[in-house]
Design a protein that fits this description.
690 residues; alpha/beta; CBS-domain; Rossmann fold; six-stranded antiparallel beta sheet; 47% helix; 20% strand
Length: 690
């Protein structure tokens, strides 16, 4: 009966332990009781966070708890574009964390653990508020503190279950009870430990994992633990580079040397995983006084950071797309009559005296308008996710377009740009927008590196090496530290401050270049500064032939000669811009045997189409009321014989939705501002005229 008595005593101790942990006074777990009134402004709360280390504080209405607000939430609000202007003066009560978890003082600890640690997604990391039954705010309990108590409970329960098993193994009746208790304990262990969404490990101060859950094994790509494997602790520090390994060991040793520090610590480490490459982990660490170990919770946040960056970029892109898209449409509509009327004016003055004096004026006006439209298109394309479009392009032209786009930034930086390009075209088969993105990123990095340089020089060259075309960009900046030269293309690696760089620029460049079958490298120059080299395969002979054919096609004369009098065709122009309809009407009358009518809306066009037959319809896309797409759909339904003689014109610089709809309708398009020769040639083609 001695063994049975020992088992009963251990069982009683186990129940007392669980009861004592579950009945603990929650005020002992309060980290701090910092709070602000709900009427305080967001900007003042931000200033408070700058002076204090807390991550979460309570928001009160008098003494009553209203919710939590976090440092990250305030930073997100004020860190966005115009964030301070939009949110700075608003009361903080409008921006408390939704679904903030708060518990009353009388709540059992086990219930608190279950409620807090079973929250899904990002809610898992939010701290918990402690309040009186009447709603009076008592303070904040951090998630790491709750996890520490959870870990203690798991370890103690597991140890007691093992003692019971050994003490009751000779008694069949007690064995049944012991196995039942063990089964229940293991079930709780599986739920709380093995099924945790985070990787959990108990490590010593040398960074050796003495135990870990299956989630961590999966995250690190480790084989499942066996008795032979666990006999030799696995080294977590082996997944870190030397510098970060030293930081981890200092953190672990600091836990041992300061065991009185109860709060958990949060750090981020870049782990180098054999099969997955560099991965960013958020690591929560806490000292387990009872076992003399450090409990680590690891969460892979690589995709989260990519998504956060992507969302920020998409938000900026959406705003820029909305602003620039509308402006581009309006400016293109204003540039279209400038280009068109200059062409008409040149044709008129060709019959006058002193043509040599007037023609250059017209050419200057025309070229300035076309160059303005080109800059607007480039700016709009950069504000939108690029659609991959492979074509044969000249590296010379790509850099000159980038130089035009960044002309103000280069002048503002007082940077001298030197170009060493071959006399023949440097043709590659690539997505022009993506290659321009690479060039822009490299130029921006070079300008940042030369901020403190007394003389700012940017040397750009294109050379041919071993059957490849090499685009080189060298600066006179501070160069790249040798110990980080092999890491600068890693995702999230940056030497810039948080507000100036995300660490994704060069990694995106490498991805684009590799997708084009090339490679990108960096090196320091003996005379100072750094040089980036982008090696790309040249265009094939067939691609060069197509490029040259396109160049010859673009060289046709601008104004077509008028046709001799013949049977006149009827043309309907639909556009709400009066200057454009007048310009198109004048150009067509001078170059085609036609009768031209103009209307300012899609509804009026439908009315005229119901009253008369037209041989050609030229319509703007974006118009108030019925737009060009709706007009085309009406024609498909009611006059399908006219659908093949329909021409779209638009000032939209090429949004994805417009391109998709045009492709679905298979209708030809001219983008404003267009040259009159292109308009006349397209009309001849649709009308079947020579």
């Amino acid at each position: 009966m001695e063994l049975a008595d020992n088992g009963s005593m251990m069982l009683m101790q186990y129940e007392q332990l669980a009861g004592s942990v579950g009945a603990i006074d929650l005020t002992q777990l309060v980290e701090h009781n910092e709070s602000v009134q709900a009427t305080e402004t967001v900007e003042n709360v931000y200033q408070w966070f700058q002076r204090h280390p807390q991550e979460y504080i309570g928001v009160l209405q008098g003494r009553r708890f209203e919710g939590l607000v976090s440092r990250g939430r305030i930073g997100f609000l004020l860190g966005a574009r115009f964030g301070t202007a939009i949110y700075g003066r608003l009361p903080i009560g409008d921006h408390v964390i939704k679904d903030s978890l708060f518990v009353s003082r009388s709540s059992p600890l086990l219930a608190v653990l279950e409620a807090s640690l079973s929250r899904p997604g990002e809610l898992f990391y939010d701290d918990v508020a402690l309040v009186e039954e009447d709603g009076t705010f008592l303070g904040i309990i951090t998630v790491p503190t709750l996890v520490r108590w959870q870990s203690r409970l798991i370890l103690e329960k597991n140890r007691q279950a093992q003692l019971q098993q050994r003490a009751l193994e000779d008694n069949n009746q007690q064995l049944f009870r012991s196995l039942n208790e063990l089964r229940q304990s293991r079930g709780r262990y599986e739920i709380l430990f093995e099924n945790s969404a985070l990787g959990v490990a108990l490590v010593n101060t040398r960074g050796e994992m003495e135990t870990c859950n299956r989630r961590l094994e999966f995250l690190l790509g480790l084989p499942p633990a066996t008795e032979s494997l666990m006999a030799t602790p696995r080294d977590l520090g082996g997944f870190l580079l030397a510098k970060e390994r030293a930081s981890l060991l200092r953190l672990l040793q600091d836990h041992e040397q300061s065991p009185e520090v109860a709060e958990a610590r949060t750090n981020e480490f870049m782990l180098q995983l054999p099969d997955r490459g560099p991965r960013l982990f958020k690591v929560y660490s806490n000292w387990i006084r009872e076992t003399g170990q450090i409990c680590l919770l690891l969460d892979d946040i690589t995709e989260q950071r990519v998504i956060e960056h992507r969302l920020m970029q998409e938000e900026k892109s959406a705003l820029l797309d909305s602003l620039v898209g509308g402006i581009a449409h309006e400016i293109n509509n204003k540039l279209a009559p400038i280009v068109g009327y200059v062409d008409l004016l040149q044709d008129e003055i060709s019959h006058l005296h002193e043509v040599e004096t007037l023609v250059p004026y017209c050419e200057t006006i025309r070229n300035a308008a076309l160059e303005s439209a080109k800059i607007i298109r480039q700016l709009l394309q950069l504000s939108r996710p690029p659609v991959r479009e492979m074509t044969t392009v000249d590296l010379h032209d790509l850099f000159r377009e980038v130089q035009t786009l960044l002309a103000f930034r280069l002048r503002q930086s007082n940077c001298q740009v030197g170009m060493d390009f071959p006399s023949t075209p440097a043709l590659i088969y690539a997505d022009a927008m993506q290659i321009k993105q690479v060039i822009i990123n490299l130029v921006f990095n070079a300008l940042d590196a030369m901020e403190e340089a007394p003389v700012k020089r940017l040397a750009v060259a294109i050379v041919a090496e071993r059957g490849r075309l090499v685009f080189q960009l060298a600066d006179s900046g501070h160069g790249i530290k040798p110990d980080i030269l092999d890491r600068i293309f890693n995702p999230f690696f940056t030497t810039k401050s948080v507000d100036r760089g995300s660490g994704l620029g060069l990694s995106v460049c490498m991805s684009i270049v590799k997708n084009h079958g090339g490679e990108i490298t960096a090196e320091n120059l003996p005379e100072g500064g750094a040089r980036f080299r982008v090696c790309l395969p040249p265009a094939t002979e067939e691609q060069v032939k197509l490029f040259n054919a396109g160049q010859r096609t673009a060289a046709v004369s601008r104004i077509a000669h008028p046709l001799p009098p013949a049977t006149r065709v009827r043309i309907l122009i639909v556009d709400d811009e009066e200057y454009i309809t007048a310009m198109v009407q004048a150009a067509l009358r001078r170059n085609l045997p036609c009768l031209v009518e103009c209307v300012a809306s899609g509804q009026r066009a439908v009315t005229r189409l119901q009253q008369a037959d037209f041989d050609l319809i030229i319509s703007d896309v974006r118009m108030p009321g019925m737009d060009g797409f709706e007009l085309f759909e009406w024609i498909l339904k009611h006059q399908p014989h006219s659908a093949g003689r329909f021409l779209f014109i638009t000032g939209d610089a090429g949004s994805a939705s417009l391109n998709e709809r045009l492709e679905a309708m298979s209708a030809p398009l001219l983008r404003k501002p267009f040259e009159l020769d292109a308009l006349v040639c397209k009309c001849r083609e649709l009308l079947g005229l020579p």
